[in-house]
Amino acid sequence: MTVKLRFFARFRELLGTDIIVEPHDGTLLAALVAEVARKNTDGYAAIFDEQGTFREFVILMRNGKRVETAEAGTITVADGDEIAVFPPVAGG
Amino acid sequence: MLSERELERYKRQILLFGNDGQERLKSSHIFIAGAGGLGSPVAIYLAVAGVGTITVVDMDTVEQSNLNRQILHYDRDIGKKKTVSAIAKLQEYNPDIIINAIDTTITADNIRRLVGQADGIVDAMDNYPVRYLLNRVALEMKVPFFHGAIRGFYGQATTIIPGKTPCLECIFPRAPPKEVFPVVGVTPGVIGTVQATEVIKYLTKQGELLVGRLFIWDGLAATSEEIAIEKNPVCPVCGSGTGTELPAGMMR
Question: Could you tell me the domains of chain B?
């Protein structure tokens, strides 16, 4: 199956965007994001804390619908999914 | 009634929304929280569009490092209060409108008094604790809240209509960490003008508002995108069975 990962803002600078991955059946959403993020240490650290859980401000969307990051470890991805990982920006 | 001078000044936009639209702008009061990177273009464009009363709140003094983006303030203003600098420029841009510039920190204690009877609140802040306060007061007063935020070449904006759209805490329940954010002036220029466009559309009842979606601008890639946003049914601020009590202090 094919899943598209889209990073935004700072995450995009560190990890790129529109990354096509081919996960195995049963791959969990959190594991997929972590696997892709691991290619860049700073990118991983921007999204995940030392325990490997999503940082609390990270916004995760699956096919345009919000997914609570706390639940991403129990949701499996499906063929054609588009996953967006987004940090709110704060400056003004 | 619009004066001869106003009819002439706003001639080219009256072509867009008529005398009625222009009268609506004139009789409106918009509250802008912040006179910095976002607040500058928002205030300038609302002033020249003829929004009749504009209140700007900021507690800071103009510093040299502000000048790459905060276009209300000039080199000669370094060391002046931003409110003093802002009121002078805005009044020069448009002497036919009323500008209130208030030099204070927005807190849970003073926010209702500061916002007063404004018809809309523009988010031109640089931190989420005050944004959350503005969001709550906008909900309580049932006035629109025009959100914008930036970092580097990236920006985001959405228009929040109490009772209809997700509120700021539905969209961003937790604030990103504080930082000295990198920024180039064009980014608040883009997002601030999106916010000002929304205010003008709302007041003149034109077009489709940026509601239920988050506009995301990536200046580096020169692309804009939208993310659909939904109400959080258990949002602590606007979800069912919740109050709108403000937190005791400014910090949450």
Answer: 4-228 (3.40.50.720)
CB within 8 Å: B128 and A90 = yes
Give me the DSSP letters along A5-29. EEE-HHHHHHH-S-EEE-PPTT-BH
Chain B residues whose beta carbon lies within 8 Å of the beta carbon of residue A91: 37, 126, 149-151, 181, 183, 188
Length of chain B in terms of residues written: 252
Give me the residues of A, 56-75, that contact B with CB < 8 A: 56-57, 59, 61, 64-66
Q: Domain-by-domain residue ranges, chain A?
A: 3-86
- pLDDT tens-place string over residues B151-210: 999 999 999 999 999 999 999 999 988 888 999 999 999 999 999 999 999 999 999 999
Which tokens belong to B230?
């939904």
- Please report the pLDDT score of residue B179 as a whole number: 86
Give the pair of three-digit tokens for residue A84.
């967006």
On chain B, the residues whose CB falls within 8 A of the CB of A92 are 34, 36-39, 123-127, 148-150, 188
**Is the ipTM of this structure higher than 0.90?**
no
Q: Give the tens place of pLDDT for each residue, B220-246.
A: 989 998 888 889 889 999 986 454 444
Q: Which CATH number fits domain A3-86: 2.30.40.10, 3.90.550.10, 3.10.20.30, 2.60.40.10?
A: 3.10.20.30
